[in-house]
Queue: 2 jobs
Job 1
Amino acid sequence: MIELKSLSRRYRSDEIETTALHDVSLTIRQGEFVAIMGPSGCGKSTLLNILGTIDRPTEGRYLFDGEDLTARSEAALAQHRAQRLGFIFQSFNLVDDLTIAENIELGLLYRKGRQGSRRALVEAAMDRVGVGHRARHFPHQLSGGQQQRAAIARAIVGEPSLILADEPTGNLDTENGAQVMEILKGLNAAGATIVMVTHSPSHADQAGRRIDILDGRLVASVAQAI
Ligand SMILES: Nc1ncnc2c1ncn2[C@@H]1O[C@H](COP(=O)(O)OP(=O)(O)O)[C@@H](O)[C@H]1O
Ligand SMILES: [Mg+2]
């Protein structure tokens, strides 16, 4: 599904150049659940952002289902994201003044489809993560765990083939973190490919493969028994 070939990402300011990713080559097959680990600042979010096409590599190629995304226009990438990708963040990123149902519907914003079917998709996504009874509440009325589950519903409402999660359990306590992991594993079992950045070794252990990054380089990629 994903093939990264000698990917690098450099940030340049007036004087300083930072290499966030250095010569990363990586293949991720459809249906995999990959955990990415590494110390703060090693390039994990940069890698996830490039996989999500919200950032572009400075060098190298990114193939998705055999198609080179590095050459495509912003409009084409926006369509790609809307049709195929779902994003989950550490800090939930819900919109404060929209209800939970409205927040989840944002996940369908750039997708085609009739109003009636959109409502059914939103309801199915809410039920899947257990926030259906909070549809008309606002984010601040929910616990952190509920907010993250609503954010997962927003990510999956369009039935993406690839889910990208950047420290999805980083702001949650043990129990809520475990719930999020169960939801992600269920989505993976149902066919979604998942790439998750985490600092939690026990959460990384639940993925089918673990990738370690150090100073922008991929230093290990190990299949795990799950
Ligand atoms: N927009 C940016 N401009 C300049 N440097 C950046 C930018 N984003 C990230 N970096 C740098 O790239 C490196 C990797 O960052 P990041 O991918 O966020 O790491 P991680 O997610 O592993 O903590 C860090 O040195 C960071 O300071
Ligand atoms: Mg990060």
Note: The chain has one domain: 2-223.
Job 2
Amino acid sequence: MDKQLVWDLPTRLFHWLLVAALSAQYVTAEWLDDAMQWHFWIGYFVIGLIVFRIVWGLVGPAHARFSNFITGPVAVWRYLKTLPDASAPAHVGHNPLGGWFVIIMLACVALQAVSGLFMTDDVFLDGPYRHLSSEPTLQLMNTLHHTVIDILLGVIALHIAAIAFYALYKRQSLTPAMVHGKKTTRTGGISSSRLWRALLIAIVVGVTVYAAIFWLPPAPVDDGFYY
Ligand code: HEM
Ligand code: HEM
């Protein structure tokens, strides 16, 4: 058994940038006055992160790929039965249950961020798609933005509780590998982080998200609002 690369650098960067950005989103919306402009900008960045992760889930290295950790119900059930067994062998990438949890987390973040595009702070700032939408759509997005955050907070709490469960009950410390990328394992390591590919995807995603937010929506009638 030796140390092998399991989490590629782009996946690790994605993870910790997401943690930082979501923390900033909470602080700028709930605790700070006058930070709404930052809330908007960081929200756009989160959309970029999610789009990047979706593409990376299709063309990234093995353990980042959706096809590697999205399994059927039988695999999830089989894994669930091994959960109480503290000595059950560790998974190299996401386990079948954790894999679905990742999808739920990504979906909640995506819903939260996209619904933000239709929000208003009722003072100066309108989301870039607000003026293009009908009243029922705006109502729906407003409800989503105020309720998905609670689901997301619950899901994040469960995620951190799961990490603690693995550390304390199963004696598997998962966090260091999300930092340096390596795990002690006999098989299953990846040979490279595919950094050039990641950089190219990041640039294309960055330009696309920028265009979708700042270029694509026709400008609203100038009423003194900006976004
Ligand atoms: C994942 C990204 C985002 C997170 C985690 C997030 C989180 C939040 C939270 C926690 C609130 C307070 C909700 C409440 O009090 O019930 C909020 C409000 C708000 N968010 Fe976001 N948000 C995100 C993205 C966005 C984006 C992209 C925009 C706009 C482009 C946006 C615009 C707003 C506005 C206008 C409000 C209402 C502020 C007010 O009540 O005056 N958010 N957001
Ligand atoms: C805002 C809070 C957080 C969010 C939204 C979040 C989200 C995620 C996501 C989406 C993944 C999947 C990574 C991927 O394949 O792209 C993941 C994995 C992981 N996260 Fe977090 N995370 C959060 C906080 C934390 C914290 C505080 C820790 C450490 C204490 C942590 C440790 C891990 C670990 C170790 C994994 C890999 C799990 C495995 O081995 O299967 N996360 N997280």
Note: The beta strands are 2-5, 182-185.
